Amino acid sequence: MTENRSEFDAKAAESGAGATEAFRKKQKAAVHVPAERVSAMATDALQAIHEVIRKHQMTYEEYDALKTWLISVGEDGEWPLFLDVWVEHVVEGVNTSHREGSKGSIEGPYYVPGAPEHPHDGTIAMREDEPGTPLTWSGQVTSTSGEALGGATVELWHADGNGFYSQYAPGLPEWNLRGTFVSDGEGRFSIHTVQPAPYQIPTDGACGRLIAAAGWHAWRPAHLHVKVSAPGHELLTAQLYFPGDPHNEDDIASAVKPELVLDPQDAGDGTSSVDYGFVLDPVTADSPTTR
Ligand code: MBD
Ligand code: FE
Q1: Which of 24, 28, 133, 213 is the most buried (most CB within 10 A)?
Q2: In this structure, which ligand is nearest to the CA of 16?
Q3: Domains delineated in the chain
Q4: Is-contact 119 255, C-beta < 8 A?
């Protein structure tokens, strides 16, 4: 490993731990889950674990290795990373299966609310020498009723050309590659950014140790994160992907859906452009709380 590489890994490890602090700040109020729900889900979860132990005839050495590892997940601050990589996609599926509008995907650990606001046509905050192919992304926000949604917000956040997220890796401007765009009267927006790089989850914390011990890979395909919202409509959280990324088929976070793969056009001058819009479901009495 070169010195450069270990510097990258050190940054990555801080990203996992930073997500724990960010989640604590966001989750100030305690959530009340009724005792019947806690009991039903905890009983089934424990039963599922008991099944695995019997099925694989777990040894005491393996039980102790599991204990050691579980303790280290908390010590490394990687519970948000672990849950968002290996569990959230099922929660997302359960809570959005009723939708008729656009498909969404998981939020992941690195969303920060309150990114700087731009008009419907704007450039996301980036460094002067920001690495990556410039990308112009245009689209329209509509309702499942067909109505154009003016004043809708499209919050965009993504990793840079080295796979790092601002506020989770040191040395990046606070709001780098994070922005809030407001659609015009016809629901349209046009965003100037750069294409992100594929993302490797931290290899030197507890999640990385699980990946290494199991012989898995640690990659997510390059992706753009978005939250799209408009009054009277369910908040849509999604991720958008790029065709041909080798990890679209084996995303460690299981968060790729065919509807979420973009079709960017090479402009021939080193930049590319893409058209991709969103259809939002109106809020109904049965709408679950989503994110
Ligand atoms: C990410 O950037 C991400 O989007 C997810 C889901 C998990 C880890 C890092
Ligand atoms: Fe991400």
Answers
A1: 133
A2: 1
A3: 7-291 (2.60.130.10)
A4: no
Residue located via tokens 């799209």: 228
* Residues contacting 283, CB < 8 A, separation 6+: 232, 233, 234
Query: Whole-angstrom Cα distance, residue 239 to residue 241?
Result: 7
| Ligand closest to CA 254 | 1
- For 14-57, the pLDDT digits (tens) are 777 888 888 888 887 788 999 999 999 999 999 999 999 999 99
Judge residue 83's burial from the number of C-beta atoms within 10 Å of its C-beta, 0-12 exposed, 13-18 middle, 19 or more buried: middle
> What value does the CA radius of gyration of the chain take, rounded to a whole number of Å?
20
Residue count (the chain): 291
- Work out the burial of residue 54: count CB atoms within 10 Å of its CB; fewer than 13 is exposed, 13-18 middle, 19 or more buried: exposed
Can you tell me the distance from the alpha carbon of 163 to that of 168, in angstroms, rounded to the nearest whole number? 11
Query: What type of residue sits at position 289?
Result: T
| CA-nearest residue, atom 5 of ligand 1 | 108
Residue 170, phi-psi category: left (phi > 0), alpha (psi -120 to 50), beta (remainder): beta
What is the pTM assigned to this prediction?
Answer: 0.93
- The closest alpha carbon to 156, from 128, 196, 187, belongs to 196
Ligand 1 centroid to Cα of residue 139, in Å, is 24
